[in-house]
Predict the structure.
Amino acid sequence: MTAVTTRTHSRLLRDAASSGQVEALLILAVATILITRLYLHVTGYPQVGGAVLHVAHVLWGGLLMVAALMMSLTFLGRAPRRIAVVLGGIGFGLFLDEVGKFVTKTNDYFFRPSVAIMYVVVVLLLVANRTVHRRQGLSPDEYLANAAATATDGLVHGLTSTDRDQARVQLDRAREGGVDPEAVEQIGILLDRCREAPPRLSAISLRLPEQLRGEHSVRVAAVLLTVFSVGILVNAAVTLEGDLAERSSDVTTVIQLVGSAATVLLCVAGTVGLWRGRQWAVRALRGAALITVFFVDVLEFAVREFGALINVAVGAAALSVFSHHLRRVSRRETPADTA
């Protein structure tokens, strides 16, 4: 039986589905930035306005974010929340795309480090989202509140079998945590009265696909991360050699060389240890992925801008694979999970 978190009475109750919603919002924001930059490049960077006025798309982004807030604050249920995620994601992407104008005196939209700033903001928001939801499991009161919200929405729109089963599991966790049994029973009655709804498309999230969760995927991720890390190291070394030949120096290139060298060392050690069955190997590889995502890729964006997207995709995917593997091992080794 799964252990239940000690009951607390916090004013802030977490939504069990909100982690995936935040991830979906950020994915939409990144997609909006890429589409906006592509559109502006193809059309020659047109301006909406006239000789005096210039309607920047950051204003449309702000308008969409306000619309998302109004939607989530005005209407009940899951459908309005999904609409708010879409509006908020697109709006945040339009807003963040013009960050270069707000950190430079010349309002430079093409400010090279602006792409790195966008990347850091998105990564920090993802980390904050994961921290909020993985700091500890849901409390019994949060389980009860989530089940009640599901029942309330289901009375009007119906429930899928997946939503109903999930709500019943939440009620069981709430009962085990010491919540009033009568309240749990009443919410269970409401769930029984909800009509059956057809399955719906699942929300966009950064959840790792099933085919990337096996032992084989760890080795593939290790090889890919090593290859890309070596590529970044070689590129930084060649760039630094060229700078030295021209008697010019770029601190960013030197820092990138050091960071990528550390990543390559961890990758090589972790990959060798992985093939030899060493327990520390995956932790070393995860450390390499962390350095790649939070350090090397930031510098890549500063130097290559959107040309760094492939490296970011590889680093983020490898980090997800290694983190999932370590969480799975941790669950097998934790007695409380099988109590």
About this structure: Residues 333-339 have pLDDT under 50 and may be disordered. The chain has two domains: 18-134, 210-336. The chain has twelve helices and no strands.
